[in-house]
């Protein structure tokens, strides 16, 4: 029996409750929650009117949205809709609007740029080379992200240090390399913390997390992972580990 099959038996049909699997109250949890609120408060005060939560709609970002709303921090929420997301991910945007009574600003790629890219390289271009995969991310993610961040001096992300080696040095507030502050309030949270918070506060989340997808991106570029695989192993799984960022969290400047 494979490791994935071993875990699948927990849910009986290839799925299991992410809360049952991951949520744990561990030492220092309350302090980490307090520190996350303090980080968000600091960002809201220092970047009044020019800070935004750029949510990926992943579990960490759902926790952050809940913290923002629960503590009335006044940080607006925006997301990227790449045109290649799972239906469950897109549906989560409306679930957030209903659950929190909040506006979620949605940024989409320029339709003509997507058409031209697909016409030139096909629907499966991301599997052909890292260069083409990054080109797809540039059209569907980076260009709309630049509009999402236009006029902003800070943005809030769900980065955690344990997500990958590449994120092991992330600080709670640091320059993003493009003249803005990047705010990562869950930087020292564990995966168990994230799910304990979600369970405790009944935070809405993507049901794909119950299908062994801890890190969810576009549908063609996300797969379930097996027990023991790294957190982001299901993202761009055909590429080397070192290439596995889409450019959203890669510093381009010298700050
Ligand atoms: S994650 Fe995949 S589908 Fe989404 S923008 Fe990047 S290459 Fe394209």
Summarize the helices and strands and which ones pair or pack.
Layout: H1 3-11, H2 18-22, H3 29-46, E1 51-55, H4 59-70, E2 77-80, H5 87-100, E3 104-107, H6 111-121, H7 130-148, E4 154-156, E5 173-175, E6 181-183, H8 191-201
Parallel strand pairs: 1-2, 1-4, 2-3, 4-6
Antiparallel strand pairs: 5-6
This protein binds iron/sulfur cluster.
Iron/sulfur cluster binds near residues 84, 140, 220 and 246.
Structure description:
By secondary structure, this protein is an alpha/beta fold. The protein is built from eight helices and six strands; from the N terminus they run αααβαβαβααβββα. The protein has a six-stranded mixed β-sheet with strand order 3-2-1-4-6-5. Helix 4 links the parallel strand 1 (51-55) and strand 2. Helix 4 crosses helix 8 and helix 6 (111-121) runs antiparallel to helix 7. The structure holds iron/sulfur cluster.
Observed structural traits:
255 residues; 6-stranded mixed β-sheet; 8 helices; 6 strands; binds iron/sulfur cluster
